[in-house]
Design brief:
This protein has 120 residues and is mainly alpha-helical. The protein has helices at 13-27, 39-46, 50-62, 82-100, 105-118; strands at 66-69, 73-76. Strands 1-2 form a two-stranded antiparallel ribbon. Helix 2 (39-46) packs across helix 3 (50-62). It starts with 12 loop residues before the first helix and ends with a helix.
Length: 120
């Protein structure tokens, strides 16, 4: 699996790493049960601090897309459908667009709720 980052991007490096993993899940290049690169090795490859990688992995763990296992590293969760990764990535994009266009959280949530009502 290829993880790339853009140090010049507005998005944090940890978020970029997590987004690469989500995309890998969404497009099928990363499958359930696979191990992610070790935090130390990935940090060295990307030229970032190991804690940046650990922050990305923790975020993915909180989203229940991976499990952090002692002494075994980060493993893609077997119980999480890839559709969850797609949805999380889409929600993150909606939040980015909302902020870029000056919408508040209540305004954005109202738009999402409106779409739920319109597409029952």
């Amino acid at each position: 699996m290829l993880i790339t980052i853009d140090p010049a991007a507005r998005t944090s490096l940890a978020e970029q790493i997590a987004a690469c993993v989500r995309r890998g899940l969404a497009d099928g290049t990363l499958r359930r049960g696979e191990r992610l690169p070790g935090a130390r090795a990935l940090a060295a490859t990307l030229g970032v601090n190991m804690h940046t990688v650990l922050r990305a992995y923790q975020q993915l763990n909180d989203e229940r897309l991976i499990e952090l296992r002692p002494r075994r590293g980060a493993v893609v969760t077997t119980s999480t459908p890839t559709s969850r990764a797609v949805l999380i990535e889409a929600c993150r994009r909606v939040v980015q667009l909302s902020r870029a266009h000056g919408l508040t959280q209540p305004e954005t949530l109202a738009l999402v709720e409106q779409q739920f009502r319109a597409h029952r």
